[in-house]
Amino acid sequence: MNELAQFLGYVTKVFDLGRIVRGLRCRRPYPEIPARPLFLSLLLGVVLRAGSYLEISQQTKRRRWQHLIHWGHRISDDAFHYVSERFALEDLRQGLVSVNHRLKANKALESCKINGLLFLSLDANEHFKSRSRCCPCCCQREIEETNAQGQKQTVIEYYHRYVFAQINGPKFNTLLDVEPIRPGEGEAEAALRLLGRIRRVYGPRFFDALTMDGWYVQGPFLKALDKLGWAWVVVLKQERMEVLQEARALSAAQKPGREFDDPARDRQVKLWEVKDLNFSKSYGGKVWLVHSQEQWLEKKVVGGKKISQPQISHWWWMASRQLEGYPSTVVYEGGHRRWGIENKAFNELTQFYHLEHCYHHEPVAMLAQMLILIVSGKGATA
To answer: Percent of the chain, pLDDT > 70?
Structure first.
């Protein structure tokens, strides 16, 4: 409990937790328990890596816990279920914005910059799936499985997915916001809704560029990013795309523009670049392509002996013209930086903080718990 007291003292001093809690609204008509002890219990539950509301409820019986949350009674898991459905999500998000602005003001994001640019990684992750439980906001898909009699059958699986926005770097990572993907819509539509809100609440200059995977290679989506005022880098995977075929043909006879060792990834890298290419009619503008060839030695144990096998990989990135004044290494580093959201957000939150566990299957409750998880994680790692 001393560690929890130190945690609360730290986040109160550095991130002004008291102001965040005072500004948190909870839409309950006749509340018996104030919002403060409920929110603080959920916050501390994340720090303790509690796997359920019942586990957090058990903690609230402890006198020291009651002292920390300023509430002298046990709180039931039903109370957490009830309140999580009624938290004002805009207030939780505003608390997250406040924390991230403090991090930037304290220069915590400086190590994340690439040639002076702050990149935002964008990606989606599945949070929950079930073949028996569903809610109005569940997405659906058909899954083929083999039953006990060995016969194949099609069943409906319900799931929730969210788009995450994260700034990451070699030393520090921070999630800015998260947006659920609604039934029947694609990842790009939810991402634009997320980015529009981020621009409103964080301002247009909180970061400079976006890095994304191949799901976002869509003309209308990239055009919308241009209108929002951000540069972007996106990986190209579809060999049939005309812009990729044209870039391959133009760069085939060229010598690499840059050759260097990447000590962070332990690879020898060659870069080619092709500018002023047309992407698509729906985009209607010129783009810039960067091709990287990366070589390294992979150590394996074969037959009880350690051997080193040479490996090679090729990457193609498409970038907006806003980045043409920068060296091609910016596109190379920005493109690879996207993997940080999987390694340092999804994997760590799933392994240590129960990201894929549904505490309460209700749309507002699920999102509220995820936002509390993100806020708690900043105080625990800052």
So the answer is: 98
